[in-house]
Amino acid sequence: MAEKSYAVIGLGRFGSSVVNHLHKAGYEVMAVDENEERVQEHVEAATHAVQADSTDEQALRDVGIGNFDVVVVAIGVDIQASILTTLLLKELGVKRIVAKAQNPRHGQVLYKVGADRVVFPERDMGIRVAHNLVSPNVLDFIELSPDYGVAEVAVSEKMQGKSLVELNVRAQFGVNVVAIKTNNDFNIAPGPEVLLQEGDILIVVGHNDDLRRFEEEM
Ligand code: ADP
């Protein structure tokens, strides 16, 4: 299968981070912004960096936007520009559009005008940080749906030297430990008898309510 090509429109903090990561991972990525300075900052970090106003249909055609497999709309503050850009991309036949939303209403509109996926980076980061504040053992949290998530939880004193079966994790909390990270090693199918050690990190999947109980009580 041929490697995918990406275009990122809007080179603020979020768009810039997406461009950098894709480029480092070796993908073709075109960086687009209406602001020439922002474009110049990305000349090295992207395969192409071009100045264009994405609310101008002809400008989008000129940069060949239809040739990219995935286009990311990373315009945040200017909600009108973000919506109009998404609509134009859809009309121009872009196969997959991922758009960043400022708030739930903005997200709803983006889906209506044709986004295939809407991301809420500020909201998601807020949730991740809040989990860590409530329980410092929680190193990270990713929402899978409004009800389910994956948490990265550092082994607490209470868990050290015990096995998953002894801790009775599944029956007591209804969550599943799907992997254990020890230093840089990953045990991706941990048996029930594996003894947990100081410094180990558990990757736990479950309902948010159950995860919260696990985080608080463990
Ligand atoms: P962040 O919160 O991720 O920093 P911003 O909303 O501050 O995002 O940045 C969005 C970027 O999108 C800015 O660099 C801005 O110049 C660019 N941008 C805004 N409107 C357009 C447009 N119509 N066409 C192209 N780029 C745009």
Number of domains: 2
Secondary-structure element series = EHEHEHEHEHEHEEHHEEEH
Question: What is the CATH-assigned architecture of the largest domain?
Answer: 3-Layer(aba) Sandwich
CATH superfamily of the largest domain: NAD(P)-binding Rossmann-like Domain
Which stretches are poorly predicted, pLDDT < 50 over at least 5 residues?
Answer: none
Pfam families: TrkA_C, TrkA_N
GO molecular function: monoatomic cation transmembrane transporter activity
Organism: Aneurinibacillus danicus
Protein name: Potassium transporter Trk
What is the topological layout?
Elements: E1 5-9, H1 13-24, E2 28-33, H2 36-41, E3 48-51, H3 57-62, E4 70-73, H4 79-91, E5 96-100, H5 104-112, E6 117-119, H6 121-134, E7 138-143, E8 148-154, H7 164-167, H8 169-173, E9 176-182, E10 185-187, E11 201-207, H9 208-217
Parallel strand pairs: 1-2, 1-4, 2-3, 4-5, 5-6
Antiparallel strand pairs: 7-8, 8-11, 9-10, 9-11
Bound molecules: adenosine-5'-diphosphate.
Walkthrough of the structure:
One of its GO terms (biological process) is potassium ion transport. InterPro entries: NAD(P)-bd_dom_sf, RCK_C, RCK_C_sf, RCK_N, Trk_Ktr_HKT_K-transport. It comes from Aneurinibacillus danicus. Pfam families: TrkA_C, TrkA_N. The chain folds into 2 domains: 129 residues, Rossmann fold; 81 residues, Regulator of K+ conductance, C-terminal domain (Alpha-Beta Plaits). The chain has a 6-stranded parallel β-sheet, with helices on both faces. Strands 7-8-11-9-10 form a 5-stranded antiparallel β-sheet. 36% of the residues lie in helices and 26% in strands. The structure holds adenosine-5'-diphosphate. Adenosine-5'-diphosphate (ADP) binds next to helix 1.
